[in-house]
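note to self: the first set is below, dont mix up w the second
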Amino acid sequence: MRVVIADDTMLTREGIARVLADAGVEVVASVGDPESLVREVIRTRPDAAVVDIRMPPTHTDEGIVAAGRLRQEAPGIGVLLLSSYVEPDYAMRLLESQPGGIGYLLKDRVFDGVLLVDALRRLRDGETVVDPTIVARVFERRRRVDPLATLTEREREVLALLTEGLSNQALAGRLHVTERTVEAHITSIFSKLGLVDEPGVHRRVLAVLTYLRA
């Protein structure tokens, strides 16, 4: 397997290169900025790239931007992004916009040669690799901000049936309750989802959209 490394800290690049070399992986280029990364990937056509998320000039998300460019310039390349911090937002951007062949690990994990090489091979094969610490944080935060979290089990059931376009009468028949009970459930759903009764606002539609997005 042939790999390009991109990190603006020379010691980090050298450390990763040594780990890869000890595992029999060929490092074909080692660079410190996104432009050099793209250039070397085009020149050497490696199987994968190990890329720091925060690189010059702003040290914010240059690595993610570069990953997008690499997927255009060298389709099929695996890209393993590294971060010193647990950043769930970046992980979600990856999972939503770059499915397959993209990975995200915390930097302290890459000095484990077995783990690093295994991740790179999986990315080369089109899989997705995300650090377990980040996965846990993402799902923890998703549970906290779940817009449906305040709904009771019955209210979730009513909302799910609303997505099928059922009328209150049909809902009552499906659930074997009165229409008044259905109306009470729907009013409670609107309230918990913050859907106010205003002219031009179709709360049933907004409730269904909230359900689908969740």
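second set (the one i keep forgetting abt)
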Amino acid sequence: MLQVAIEAALEAGKFLKTNVGNIKHIERKIGQETNLVTEIDKQSEAMIIRKIHSHYPLHAILGEEGGSSAQQSEFRWIIDPLDGTTNFTHGLPIFSVTIGVEHKGDMIAGVIYDPNADELFTAEKGKGAFLNGKKISVSTTDTLINSLVVTGFPYNVKENPENVIQHFINFLPVAQGVRRLGSAAIDLAYVACGRFDGYWEVFLNPWDKAAGVLIVKEAGGSVTNFFNDSTDTVFRPNTLASNGRIHQQMLDILHKTLRP
């Protein structure tokens, strides 16, 4: 299944890269003025689903753009055909394709492909994480002040849900640097390969992080919610991923404005 996910991600990524600047129609999702979707997102998702169903016609699909199927299957593919749509619409080359495979509620394979950098992050449960075929691991940084961390903002950030803005402010003076790239999948991939030491975000959807959660774990990192619960992290909205060494330090910062 990993090979099918790889082939689907590479094909979709090539399609995305060749269509930068060719967007004909941009929609705004209902109730979310800044949450964009284009015909490219939808075509990419359809391409991925065709590839999956050509090999596994009875497997279930959960896709961001509605290309879901509810077959009664032990396997479910969780897809974001274009993670970073806003970047894509502006021609900013930070976007990705991400595909996760779930078996009986457990993530068993994941792929994140950045077509602009031609970087393919992959993982299978129990077999480690890889970047373009070479094994990767999280960083060894053990203090937050020496860490480069990254975050993302939900589409309703103006309402400051769960103190999103305050979390960002709290991290600024205690980390070496804070970044915001605009693709959750790339954020997680960069934690896995040690470019970032930690990442947090509220209200992530399963398709944003299904593959990334597995890749970080297989690279030796930690993934929990904001209360250090590592169960069912793909389907819980709040996500904290780190190299493990600074995990508690990041939790301490998040807890400044959180209540159980």
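remember for set 2: DSSP finds seven helices and 14 strands in the chain.
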